Amino acid sequence: MPNYAINPPPVVTLPIEGSDAEFPVRRVYCIGRNYAAHAIEMGHDPDREPPFFFQKNPNNLAVGDSFPYPPKSEDVHHEIEMVVALKSGGVNIPVDAALDHVWGYGVGLDMTRRDLQGEAKKMGRPWEIGKAFEASAPVSALRPVSEVGHPASGLVELKVNGEAKQTGDLNQMIWKVPEMISYLSDYFELAAGDVIMTGTPSGVGAVVKGDVMECHVAGVGDLKVTVA
């Protein structure tokens, strides 16, 4: 047995729908501005420019029915996303082979301290302070490809207190799932346990304590979270 200087941190896992098995998480990649309407609302040109990614930490993923409002922010936004979980990886993965590496899919929220992210953007600094805080990525149980296939179209919707705030379709993604996997593999060695958050449609907005967020991705699942 290894002689660790301190107790090693626990492995971060996500639940699997209908199973007592768990999916271990290695890395979390998030694509930015992957829906044209969202790119516009954030003040950017929606033309198909090269994709860009940022990362959350695996232990930013949160399972449960509550989202703790984070400190040092007064403008926390919801961003619904489809989540992709990989069973294998590699480098320079061709687009036409990329889906072979997918284990399954889920529904997630890329919660964002928008005020802190905005300050970081103005100063040309990384986004982690706005994106990679504790419990910043609530995620549903995953469902395997054997159950859901590879969803490429279908409703993506987020409601706050019963009112629709974000509505889009998976077919509106500028960069599709196989392209994201292929592109990432040109810059990183992907591996089993990697998770990709695939971008959010327009309509992002602030939440306050007590708000209930209901998320739905057609063919994938649902996620309901209360701001605590």
UniProtKB/TrEMBL annotation:
The keyword Cell cycle does not apply. SUPFAM superfamilies: FAH. Pfam families: FAA_hydrolase (PF01557). Residues 28-227 form the Fumarylacetoacetase-like C-terminal domain. Gene3D superfamilies: Fumarylacetoacetase-like, C-terminal domain. Coiled coil: none annotated. The keyword Hydrolase applies. Keywords: Hydrolase, Metal-binding. GO terms for molecular function: acetylpyruvate hydrolase activity; metal ion binding. It comes from the Bacteria. This is Putative fumarylacetoacetate hydrolase. It comes from Aurantimonas manganoxydans (strain ATCC BAA-1229 / DSM 21871 / SI85-9A1).
